[in-house]
Amino acid sequence: MGLISKIDDIGRPAWIALTVLSFILFWPIGIALLVYLKWSGRMFCSKRYGHWNTPDGSNARAEFRDWKRRHRWGRDASSGNVAFDEYREETLRKLDEQQREFRDFLDRLRAAKDRAEFDDFMAERRDRPPVPKEPPPAASPTA
Predict the structure, then answer these.
(1) Which domain holds residue 22?
(2) Considering its fold, how many domains does the chain have in total?
């Protein structure tokens, strides 16, 4: 029984610990170990289970597609009551519209504030007396 099979028996935490330790000791070994783990399928997506299959045998892609069909952004797609579903969709549409209007209002408010601050700055700058320029230092006569 080889070293790799012993580490496989311990599982993923052993591979992670070995990778971290190899980076600490000598970083090229750590990179080589990461490449090996990716290539062999011991980390990330395992070749033993297939890219979308999980260790328990279920198909993650099919589960995600089913979940997406049943849910829409965390909400059930249908409550079973058509009148309620229409009311909910109309209410959500109104809320989205109000949110968009509020964002537009905030953008206009920020722009007005920025414009007022800029105008104040420019007025203050215009009203400031000009700074007299200092004459260039006279060259000292060398003896």
Answers:
(1) 1-44
(2) 3
